[in-house]
Amino acid sequence: MRSGSESIAELLVRNIPRDLVLAVEDAFQAGAQRAYAASRDSDAGHRRNVLGQLRHFYMNELFHSALEVAGASPSQLRGNEVVAGAVGAVRLGRFNVPQGIWNTASRASSRRIMALANKAVEALVQADFFVPRIVNINCTAFFAAVFDHVQPELPISIQIAVPDSQMKGWLFRESTTDFLARYEQASSQADKAIPKLKVIKKAEDDPGQK
Questions:
Q1: Terminal Cα distance for the chain, rounded
Q2: Where are the beta strands (DSSP E) in 46-198?
Q3: What own/partner pairs with CB < 8 Å and gap ≥ 24 does 16-21 have?
Q4: What is the pTM assigned to this prediction?
Q5: What pLDDT is recorded for position 190?
Q6: What percent of the chain has pLDDT over 90?
Q7: pLDDT tens digits for 167-185?
Q8: Is 128 exposed, middle or buried (0-12, 13-18, 19+ CB in 10 A)?
Q9: pLDDT of residue 29
């Protein structure tokens, strides 16, 4: 038995390719930088608003590309709509939030609809702190870029998060830096699980037995 958050982490690692997580990190960094550069000449009165809008569009475009390269079937780019994709049992979306409490994450109705898929995961996790391994259960996860006003050109953190079905709380939340380390752990555990064959010499091959 393991904690609910650890069981969700295993589900994510099994379904989301490591290269996709790396590509999303690069996409968010590049999209944020592009948005910041494009908004610098805007009037100070609405520069923050312009920056927020441009972040959405540029980061959406590059997130779409990362999903496409990974074969994650991204939805079409269309205005303010959320770009979503799917890998295995996990549906993926994205959003930007200011540092602090993530009150704005649930504003988009499309994200709230996506989160409804986490009803089954939520029931398992909340039924008991220790839950069995979660296998082949569909869930929704979001990549979140966290920004502050001190360093507006880049996210101060990129996180992967699984909300509850109402997007009122988080069943799992972790920086992509920490999450990427889980792939190394999973690979190490898999290597240790490979049985080693013991070679048994035949008596006639052993000079001492002749």
A1: 53
A2: 85-87, 90-98, 130-131, 139-147, 157-163, 170-175
A3: 16/87, 16/88, 16/90, 16/92, 16/141, 17/70, 17/87, 18/180, 18/183, 19/70, 20/66, 20/67, 20/70, 20/72, 20/87, 21/160, 21/176, 21/179, 21/180
A4: 0.85
A5: 60
A6: 71
A7: 999 999 999 999 999 999 8
A8: exposed
A9: 98
